[in-house]
Design a protein that fits this description.
Layout: H1 8-16, E1 39-48, E2 54-62, E3 69-70, E4 77-79, E5 91-92, E6 95-105, E7 114-120, E8 123-129, H2 148-152, E9 157-162, E10 166-167, E11 173-180, E12 226-229, E13 235-242, E14 247-251, E15 262-268, E16 272-281, E17 286-295
Parallel strand pairs: 10-17
Antiparallel strand pairs: 1-2, 2-6, 3-5, 4-7, 7-8, 9-11, 11-15, 12-13, 13-16, 14-15, 16-17
């Protein structure tokens, strides 16, 4: 008797642990997994510095929709040139994050490569940077030439002070931001949520789609980078560059004023050494500062 050839659907069913009858519909590449997936570093282009050196820009995609990952510096998070530590993150938020950090290379770098290696869930992936002309980042905005207003725009300025650099849980950390800006570009109007975004998505598959036996998409309960609105134009975004867990930062006032210091509170969920990044944006240009905090 001739044996029937196993179908691709059957292989997928076995791999996912699904009943054979569901094999025809199962496609693991269409599932938004909550956890267990890898983080891929990527090269995000290069730019020129006035002194002739170059900036190699890097980002990453955490393929999980919920799981946040901490990968300390070392064999699993390192560079092949200039030492293990080149300013890369050790904390990885879900999904795509572009131009997270940059590495300066000398003017005589030539055709050499700079490689960032990252191992997550046992899988090693690399971002390879080199001075290919195709990857040069030109000083334009969104792929288009700047408008006259954008040409005269000056970057906003941000400074942050903290009430100490050590926190004992469950205490919080008091922060104060001081900002200045030239008022360009003009505010386009009050901030409004996009229609349909009044509530966050629940990441549930449609009723007629199969469900993965593990990592069923759910409403995310963690903390993404925190945004604090200074006024209708200026926004401070707080993120964790290094540390074991997310950090939530909230404004202490519902009616902030760009002319006055902005009081905020940072709430930590796990002890460890943190490097927080605050980025002030006027919608086109940004200024950044970083803050080291020890949580006990």
């Amino acid at each position: 008797m001739a044996l029937a050839r196993p179908t691709l659907g059957l292989f997928l069913a076995l791999a996912l642990g699904l009943p054979a009858g569901a094999a025809a519909q199962a496609d693991p590449f269409n599932f938004p997994f909550t956890s267990g997936q890898t983080v891929a570093p990527f090269f995000d282009g290069w730019s020129r510095n006035p002194d002739g050196t170059y900036e190699m820009h890097f980002g990453y995609i955490n393929r999980n929709y919920v799981e946040e990952l901490h990968v300390p510096l070392g064999p699993d998070n390192s560079f092949d040139t200039g030492g293990v530590d080149q300013g890369q993150p050790t904390f990885f938020y879900p999904r795509v994050h572009r131009k997270v950090f940059s590495v300066t290379v000398p003017a005589d770098w030539g055709g050499r490569e700079l490689v960032w290696s990252l191992t997550v869930h046992g899988q090693r992936q690399q971002a390879i940077a080199w001075l290919d002309p195709v990857w040069e980042i030109e000083p334009i905005l969104g792929g288009r030439a700047p408008t006259p207003e954008q040409r005269i725009n000056q970057a906003p300025l941000l400074s942050v002070t903290a009430d100490g650099r050590t926190v004992s849980l469950p205490d919080t950390l008091a922060l104060t931001a001081r900002v200045s800006d030239d008022g360009v570009p003009r505010a386009s109007g009050p901030r409004r949520r996009a229609r349909g975004q009044e509530t966050p998505p629940t990441l549930q598959p449609a009723a007629d789609e199969p469900r993965a036996p593990v990592n069923v998409p759910v409403l995310r309960t963690g903390v993404r980078p925190s945004e604090v609105a200074v006024d209708d134009r200026l926004t401070i975004t707080w993120s964790v560059l290094r540390g074991p867990a997310s950090v939530a930062v909230e404004a202490d006032s519902d009616d902030p004023d760009a002319r006055a210091p902005v009081p905020m509170t940072a709430t930590f969920s796990a002890p460890g050494e943190y490097l927080l990044r605050a980025s002030l944006s006027d919608g086109h240009l940004t200024d950044m500062t970083e803050l080291e905090v020890r949580v006990e």
